[in-house]
Design goal:
The protein is an alpha/beta fold and about 240 residues long. About 30% of the residues lie in helices and about 20% in strands. It has one domain (about 5-240): Rossmann fold. The protein has helices at about 10-15, 40-45, 45-50, 70-85, 100-110, 180-185, 205-210, 225-240, and strands at about 5, 20-25, 85-95, 115-125, 140-145, 160-165, 195-200, 215-220. An 8-stranded mixed sheet has the order 1-8-7-2-3-5-4-6, with helices on both faces. The termini are close together.
Amino acid sequence: MTAIVHQGDALQVLPTLPTGSVDALITDPPYNSGGRTPAERRSDTARGKYVSGDAQHDLADFAGDNRDQRGYLAWLALLLSEGLRLTRPGGSALVFTDWRQLPVTSDALQAAGWTWRGVIPWHKPISRPVRDGFKAECEYVLWASHGQPYRHAPTIYLPGLLEGSQPRGKQRQHITQKPVAVMRELVKIAPVGGTILDPCAGAGSTGVAALLERRQFVGVEVAAHSADVARQRLTETGHHP
């Protein structure tokens, strides 16, 4: 299986890739969420919004998480529109979001031309408590397709509820890194041997899962540091199938 990570702005890199060259788009874009008010969401850093104050790590911050709601909708719709062009008919898009941004994420998917098909909750057993309220232990994956979804042979049946916590300790290399076990379930939406595109690749968890599940991977990551981390993880995965 092959894997490549392009370092650069996805809206500049994606137009250089060939139409219909991937089988699924799976991505965890910057949520542009967090904070108590719209002003806080725009002014705070990603680390300030998504990392507990007592966290025992010094992971790098990341850019692109300070758009206002209209800017986020426009940016994500453009990104997903290019993703639709790159995805073969029948392919799926799986896009992570939180409760605040679920409505605008579904708007962006549909504005880009995808057919919205459902929401997959992601339960995080290790998550932040909320004082005098309900624990914030769930995020979401929005599922959409490019026309009618693939008919897999043999037929596949994927879970409607995902479970897994973010990696901890030395295994965590990105502020919002997703668990490989969760990503391994998601990449199965593409056929074995097919290609997964992640235009917000981060530390490369989508690509690691793709390789482990015998899929090809194309990633785009704007931050040079994260792109290097992703490439290293993909190299290590390729050496240890």
